[in-house]
Amino acid sequence: MGLLHETKAPGGAWSLLAAGLAEFFCTAAFLFIATGTVTSGCHTADTARQSGATDQELETVEPGACFLGSTNLLNIAMAFGLSIFVLVYAAASFSGGHLNPAITIAMFLTSRVSLVRAAVYIICQLAGAIVGSALVRAADPNGFKAALGAANRLNTWANVGTGLGVELILTAIFVFIVFAAVDKKRGAHSAHMPVLAPLAIGIVVFLCHLVAVPIDGCSVNPARSFGTAVVARTWAHHWIFWVGPIVGGAAAGLLYEALAYRAPLFGGPVE
Amino acid sequence: MGLLHETKAPGGAWSLLAAGLAEFFCTAAFLFIATGTVTSGCHTADTARQSGATDQELETVEPGACFLGSTNLLNIAMAFGLSIFVLVYAAASFSGGHLNPAITIAMFLTSRVSLVRAAVYIICQLAGAIVGSALVRAADPNGFKAALGAANRLNTWANVGTGLGVELILTAIFVFIVFAAVDKKRGAHSAHMPVLAPLAIGIVVFLCHLVAVPIDGCSVNPARSFGTAVVARTWAHHWIFWVGPIVGGAAAGLLYEALAYRAPLFGGPVE
Amino acid sequence: MGLLHETKAPGGAWSLLAAGLAEFFCTAAFLFIATGTVTSGCHTADTARQSGATDQELETVEPGACFLGSTNLLNIAMAFGLSIFVLVYAAASFSGGHLNPAITIAMFLTSRVSLVRAAVYIICQLAGAIVGSALVRAADPNGFKAALGAANRLNTWANVGTGLGVELILTAIFVFIVFAAVDKKRGAHSAHMPVLAPLAIGIVVFLCHLVAVPIDGCSVNPARSFGTAVVARTWAHHWIFWVGPIVGGAAAGLLYEALAYRAPLFGGPVE
Amino acid sequence: MGLLHETKAPGGAWSLLAAGLAEFFCTAAFLFIATGTVTSGCHTADTARQSGATDQELETVEPGACFLGSTNLLNIAMAFGLSIFVLVYAAASFSGGHLNPAITIAMFLTSRVSLVRAAVYIICQLAGAIVGSALVRAADPNGFKAALGAANRLNTWANVGTGLGVELILTAIFVFIVFAAVDKKRGAHSAHMPVLAPLAIGIVVFLCHLVAVPIDGCSVNPARSFGTAVVARTWAHHWIFWVGPIVGGAAAGLLYEALAYRAPLFGGPVE
Asked: Which residues constitute the domain of residue D233?
């Protein structure tokens, strides 16, 4: 699809408006649920004690003191991954359910969406992410402070190369799953592909978080990183969360288009 | 559907009776499983010790002493969300599987159910919730006391604005997913929508609980809050758990009807 | 189907043999995975320390010393529920995937299987459960001792009425989900019902365990309780795990047949 | 299919190349996500403290000091099982999504893939596993050291017979689920089988890990064990992770072919 396609198509402007609204509201809902789970989780009794708070109010703790243990890691990964599942489930028929500039850019580079549509989506995603994060801070300022707003940052043990490499590889895997999920040729011969598409997409986001939350909080989504950085005013190493996901996602998208999209079908699952 | 539709339609009374019974039994089962997981979880060894009990009998602990850690938070969120999944899965063909006055009211305001049907559903949901909660107290009086019957209440660190705002936003997201799941126009063009509908609905309830259990125990369902309040005799801030979910759900339902229902289709997932 | 149906039908004997073998092998696999998760989990570092073992070998701990915390509760519930999901997924086309005498009896009482088939299934389920539990003991005798073989028993805080009531109610909910899942009339009008059937059945088993593991280890399946009781030689209150599930399951099955099976259809999920 | 089939079929060489690439990339992604979750999990605060590290950098801990508790056990099992779900979901239409020599050998022995194809797959799986594990070490050398690269090894309490027996039984159950999932005759009469196939396969891998991670880290996949052994240079008892999965998988595959494949259909789930 070319640049003009969107604006010339009958109903194109209305379709684009509906899609942009869906991207805005669903990215805001994504940030509210996912980063809200991080901040409210700081008030659970075990986490609050580990952070040095004498109660669960967290008024006395240092910024960023919220404890990351193996348990709330699982809760956090589930909140990010499964909110992508339900929001892609619902938003797919409005906008395709990108909710992520790295996905939108990979889709644009492979001619799946026009430049105008890509630009509208990314602006709506970034605005939605800021709104979602601001609502979390308004609802729970102490938890927000203790968790630094769930903003992405490199943990002390990780260096720039680690963060960049992990974001790049994980987003490449993520985009591979997304491109397979929307591959109509393959989906037409494989009963599981269209039906489970939003679940597979949500679960791969869950898996990225299981791996990368202890490293850099896990981005794989520049809008998510941007929204929390704006609201928490935390910009250290912020470029990593744009360059890693966009480069990894674009590379996987272009590789899929060049190789996988034309590859012959093999049959059903595990045949 | 108008008010008269239900009573004039052939078989309408019998259909309404079957639907009301389904709402009653399934809401009772929902409370039994979900709040029963909260109360029986107070007897696990780690939770009991944290509560100050010398054994797992909990006979000596203060009312409300049951510990909320990041681990049982996950168990609780799963119990609420996944019981909604299986009960909506089974009840959908009897009553639509509302199990929640906030859903029924949003459905009524958008003419998806009649006033008579809405009233019958809500009465059956409230009665079912009381029965489910009473069975939990009968089975495990000490766990019930330690957990205050899993009744909703604002945690000490949260104020009225936080509780009301979070209930309103989460129920709005919940109702958006439900309305998308039952949107026949979109479902006809999207293989994943009708098949995964009860799973998406259950998972969004799970996500609401991940966010809001540390804040106010998470309602998003006035029947669930009413049932436990009646049995545990805990009415502090109870109005929040009616106003928040009903206003948030109604707003999302009316917005969906006005904007989203008429929006053009975009295609398959993430296309 | 009457008593003679199975033996007179063409290929009936061969079909019954295949079905019995499937029930035998899959019930053995169920016990191996589910109770094996309980016993091997006693060797994790946190659990072993809580049990008083100085290392993870558990050679020095008392029988039954294995710690039940809120974390391994979740692992255990997942092992029971999700192994039912995958085994029903695979066994459904061989035998229907009962793997549980309470299901088979409810199916027999509502004329879904013949008396001969019900008897063959139950014998195969009981034999399979013994084999699965014996393999767990052979692989991990110390973990088996520490966990008392994952046999069902009333925890100290629970009395007979609690155990019996909880088993009865949970199995009734379980059988309601199973009967809805195999209700062909409803399934024909509801895209989600046939596709998600084994997942809904597995998840309701998971939920029963979340509620009842802290109470009595959770049975809802006399074969599972019988297999571990035989191998662990633990028979205290064993009758509860037959009477509760069978009475609860039979009541739910007969009620479904009398009321729900004939109830009018309402439409898709949550309509 | 015979040996010559692959090379003579039109497009056979191109199909085989695409399939081999899919097996290579997806096995690398599997190791990166699954063993990366093990190593990065060693940096969470609770795990790091238990390992004796004064901070989360893990520079001072002994090789292999990473703590296995009941919580990170769940995270690990989910990472292995759910990455198999999403990768089989996407790779099925390229190669069948084996990602495991034990599956490929069972498929070859039952004439589901040719000798040439089996050899190409296994070489690609082994190479992919090495690449995936090497990327984990490059990204997180301290976590890799603390977890011994997530290599399989017998825990101190387990002997060779236990490890071999558990790997054999679990892989047999795993292959039974896989063979049922790709059984076209059964799938044609059972709506849930083709749609849920990759989910059932991923969940059975999750269950194998719940049982066997405390025993030997869980293999059920020689490529996964080989990749980590090469990169971590840990070869103790390595043969177990080839012999157990291959013998168990082959036995289950041949038994399925001899008995189950020809068994009559029983109907829908749990009928």
From this structure: 9-260
